Amino acid sequence: MVTRELGDVIPVPAEVRPDAAVDFAIDSGTSISAAPGLEQVADYLVAVLRPATGFELAINSGAGAIALAVDPELGSESYRMDVSSQRIVLTGGDPAGVFYAVQTLRQLLPVEIYADSAQQADWIVPGGVIVDRPRFSYRGAMLDVARHFFTVDEVKTYLDALVQFKINHLHLHLTDDQGWRIDIESWPKLTALSGGDGTGVDGLGGGCYSKGDYEELISYAEKLFVTIVPEIDMPGHVNAVQVAYPELTADGVAPMPRTDMEVGYSSLVAGKDETYAFADDVIREMAALTPGPYLHIGGDEAQATTAEDYRTFIVRVLPLVTKYGKRPIGWHEMAAVDLPTAAVAQFWRIEEADEGTARAAARGNKIIMSPADKTYLDMRYAADTRPGLEWAGLIDVKTAYGWEPAERLPGVGEEALLGVEAPLWSETLRSLTDAETMTFPRLPAIAEIGWSPRDSRDWESFRARLAEYGPRWRQQGIAFHPSPEIDWP
Ligand code: TNX
Question: Is residue 43 part of a domain?
Fold first, then answer.
C-alpha cells in the first residue's frame, strides 16, 4: 500500500512541509482530545474514522494522540496540522478551521478510510506540517431544486461530498417558472399548487420543503460549516407564482403551469402593490428561516420586464431584504441600479466584460464569480456526454480549472471579490446520480480556485491529485464523470 504525500490534497494547501521521518499511525489505541467548543468536530472526526478503521477512538479531555485545538491567531477557517510520530495536532483559527484540518486529514489517509465496515489497512498519516488558509471567504456551490427537486436526504448527501473540498456555502435555487419548493405560510398556494408532483421539467421531479424540512437541512449544513443561501427568483422566473396567485399577473388571469425549459417569459408587475406585499411576505418568512447572512433575490433573465420596470422593482425589493436583517445577493443584472453597499452581485455570463458588475465593484459592492463558461456544472463535459446543456460551451476539467477570478472581468479585481460559486442548474437532471456526475470532478477545480493561493495553481499537479479521487468517490458511492483528461487509477 502506498503512503500518501503530505501535499496530496485538494484544494492544495498554502504551505506544506513534509517530514517523512515522522509518519503517524492511527491504531486501536489512538485517542482523540478536543478543546472546549470542538466537541462537534471531534464527533465528526470519530464518525468518519471509526467505521473503516474499526477502532474505538475514544474522545477524552486530556491530551489525545489526535488533538483538536483552537488558536484564533491563525485566522478564520484557517488551520495548522502538525503530524509527528507521537501525535497529530489539528489547530484551527476557529472550529471551521479545525473542520477543514479534518478534511485534509481524511484525504491523507488511504482510500479504504471511506468504507462503511472495518478494513485491513495501515492507517498512516504522512509526517510534517501543513499551514493552510482560504483565499476567499465565499466558496460556493448552487443546486437548482426548482427544475428538478432534490429531497432533504439527497441534499445532505450532496453536502457531505461538497465539504470534502472545503466548500462553505450552498446556494439553493428554490423557485422558478416550473415550481416553488418552500412552504410560505402567508401564501400557501405557492407550494399547494406549484410544489407538487409533476412540477419539475418534463412533468417529472416535483416536490417541496416544509419549513421543518428546510430547518433540518440548515442545521445539517451548519454542522458541516456550510451556510445555506436561499434564492427566491424575482421579478422573472415566476410562472409558478402566477399559476398559484393570478392577482400577481398584469391581467389577473392565471397562466398555464409550465414544465418546459424556456426562460425569460414571466414577470411580476412592477406597478402593482400586490407585487411588493408578496415580496415583503416571502422575504420576511425566508429571512426568519435563515440563520446565515445572505438572501438571494434572483433578478436574472427578466426579459419579460421592461428595463424601467426592472429598476423600479429592484429598487423597491432590495431594502426589504435589509429590513429583515439580511444581506441581498442577486444575479449581476441587478447592478443596473445603484446597489446599497451591502448588496452582492453574482456574475454569471460568458461575455468578457460587464459594465454593471464593474460599476458595482467600483462602488464597493462585493462580487461572486460564476462565469457560465467555466463554473456552470450543468454544461456538458464534451459534445457526447449526457446530461447537460451547452449554451455556455463545453466545460472539461481543464477549462473549469484554467481561469482566474480576479482577472475575469475588467474593473473587478481581487479586493472586489467575495468569492466563487459553481452553479448546478437541473433542467436536464433526473436524479442525485446525475447531479453528482455533473459536479465531480469539476467542482474540485472551482474549490481549489476559491481556496488555494493564486500562485499555486498548476494543472499537472491538480490533474495528478484529482486522479486519486476516483477511487475515493467510488468507495463513497459518489458518482463522477470519468473525464479522459485524467489518468484515473
Ligand atoms: C441561465 S444562469 C439561467 C438559468 C438556467 C441556466 C441553464 C441564470 C442566472 N439563469 O435560468 O437554468 O442558464 O444553464
Answer: yes
Q: Which residues, in sequence order, are CB contacts of 480 under 8 Å at separation 6+?
A: 436, 437, 439, 440, 441, 469, 470, 473
Evaluate: CB of 376 within 6 angstroms of ligand 1.
yes
**What CATH code is carried by the domain that includes residue 74?**
3.30.379.10
User: Ligand 1 in contact with 381 (CB < 6 A)?
Assistant: no
Active site members: 301
Banded model confidence at residue 374, pLDDT cuts 50, 70, 90: very high
Q: Are residues 27 and 56 in the same domain?
A: yes
What CATH number should be reported for the domain holding residue 393? Answer: 3.20.20.80
One DSSP character per residue, 347-411 reads E---SS--HHHHHHHHTT-EEEE--HHHH-TTB-SSTT--S-B-TT----HHHHHS--GGGSBTT
Taking residues 226-233, report their average pLDDT.
98
CA-proximal residue: ligand 1, atom 9 (nearest)? 300
- CB of 315 within 6 A of ligand 1: the answer is no
The answer to whether residue 409 is domain-embedded is yes
391: pLDDT strictly greater than 90 = yes
pTM score, whole prediction: 0.98
The pLDDT confidence band at residue 61, using thresholds 50, 70 and 90, is: confident
Which ligand 1 atom is the nearest neighbour of the CA of 263?
11
Which of 425, 427, 429 is the best mutation target for the ligand 1 pocket, counting ligand atoms within 8 Å of the beta carbon and taking the most?
425
Compute the average pLDDT of residues 436-461: 98
C-alpha span between 331 and 344 (Å, rounded): 9
Instruction: State the residue range of the domain holding 126.
Output: 15-132
Percent of all residues in the chain with a pLDDT value above 90, rounded to a whole number: 98
6 forms beta bridges with: none
Count of C-beta atoms within a 10 Å radius of residue 29 = 10
Mean pLDDT of the chain: 97
Is 486 domain-assigned?
A: no
Q: Is the CB of 300 under 6 A from ligand 1?
A: yes
Residue nearest to atom 10 of ligand 1 (CA): 300
Last residue of a domain, one of 132, 164, 199: 132
C-alpha cell at 263: 426562460
**Is 425 close to ligand 1, i.e. is its CB under 6 Å away?**
yes
Residue 462 in domain: yes
Residue 1 has pLDDT above 50, yes or no: no
Same domain, 69 and 182: no
The closest residue, in CA terms, to atom 6 on ligand 1 is 425
